[in-house]
Amino acid sequence: MTSTDSQFDPRFDLVLDREIDVPRERVWAAWTEPERIKQWFTPAPWQTVACEIDLRPGGAFRTVMRSPEGEDQPPTVGCYLEIVENEKLVWTTILEPGFRPARPGAPGACHGLAFTAVITLHAHGNGTRYRVVAMHPDEESSRRHDELGFQDGWGTALDQLVALYRN
Amino acid sequence: MTSTDSQFDPRFDLVLDREIDVPRERVWAAWTEPERIKQWFTPAPWQTVACEIDLRPGGAFRTVMRSPEGEDQPPTVGCYLEIVENEKLVWTTILEPGFRPARPGAPGACHGLAFTAVITLHAHGNGTRYRVVAMHPDEESSRRHDELGFQDGWGTALDQLVALYRN
């Protein structure tokens, strides 16, 4: 058992759980290589126009999204917490690189939302069972993330990933 | 270089840096074994009366302090982020076990303070160079931690550790 296997709490957490026709090594590459992230991470017509990745616990990713009107947003930053190649990726919006606490509501914290994302990949036939759990501190922030379009946003991004990397 | 080596920021961070006459293996044991934590972690006449430790990234420690008047405080919880035996221990007050974001101001978050503690131990003769950096999100929370007695509190606790475990 790893650190986050038994932590799911339906009051506080949002889940996207799908079987996709993409081998998990390709899903892992899509999540951990900047040039690939830029291809799928943001639902069109929005784009990800910049991405840096420092893939280690305490390292971070930093992405910049561009609106359909061409306006770049403040960077989104997530600090990696747990990295198990091809299996599991855990990151949080509430820490900056080097594990420094992020300022509450800082623009780098994804829409000001405090959450930890746990992405798990299980081999499933030739594809992957892909599961994202977004863990929040309380019901209110979970509901807010839901209203901001968690299912739609993460689901559409995943559709884009599948379209690019399917078997 | 590990994740937190180059992150020190004098505007946001507090430091305790001392050479102590305790081998670093004993300092490590004092930090990671519940029965030892209870002996030194809280400046007398306060006491630590309970301690649980789950020593892995995403695990946590939970301590209960008792006031001189015999009143138990809400538990203090810290989530481990990086563990290098006998060398480095990193934990944060802003995550709960399993990396879930803590509720801001929750009683488990050490006095409501958002910080990440980086404890590094370097062998120094027969003793240890002992360094704690408390990283905060901004100047205000760093100042507040300072006013709450960071130097005195951490310094006095360290004196207690040294008295118990010195060469």
Task: Tell me what you see in this structure.
2 copies of one chain form a homodimer. Chain A is of the alpha+beta class and 167 residues long. Chain A has a single domain, classed as Alpha-D-Glucose-1,6-Bisphosphate, Chain A, domain 4. The first copy, chain A, is 25% helix and 32% strand. Chain A has 4 helices and 7 strands; from the N terminus they run βααββββββαα. A 7-stranded antiparallel β-sheet of chain A has the order 1-7-6-5-4-3-2. In chain A, strand 4 and strand 5 form a beta hairpin. In chain A, helix 1 crosses helix 2. The first copy, chain A, is globular. In chain A, 37% of the residues are buried. At the A-B interface, loops of A face loops of B.
Helices and strands, with pairings:
The structure is a homodimer of 167-residue chains.
Chain A: E1 13-20, H1 24-32, H2 34-40, E2 47-53, E3 60-66, E4 76-84, E5 88-92, E6 116-124, E7 127-135, H3 139-147, H4 150-165
Antiparallel strand pairs in A: 1-7, 2-3, 3-4, 4-5, 5-6, 6-7
Helix pairs in contact in A: 1-2
Give a brief rundown of this model.
Helices cover about 25% and strands about 30% of the residues of chain A. The first copy, chain A, is built from four helices and seven strands; from the N terminus they run βααββββββαα.
